[in-house]
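Shipment paperwork, digital attachment
Item: protein structure file
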Amino acid sequence: MKRRAAVEPVIGHLKAEHRMSRNHLKGRARDRINPVLAAAGFNFHLLLRWFERLLRP
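Attachment content:
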């Protein structure tokens, strides 16, 4: 349950902020691609924030 409690807010954020509420891609393979792309975008955003904090004087 502790692990699930840590994952649920991330899934909610992905659905709200990264267009996961509706799949705009067509087909079964694209159903699998959509969450991977959303997670990659989420991780890229985290990296950008980390770099910003690192390079801030």
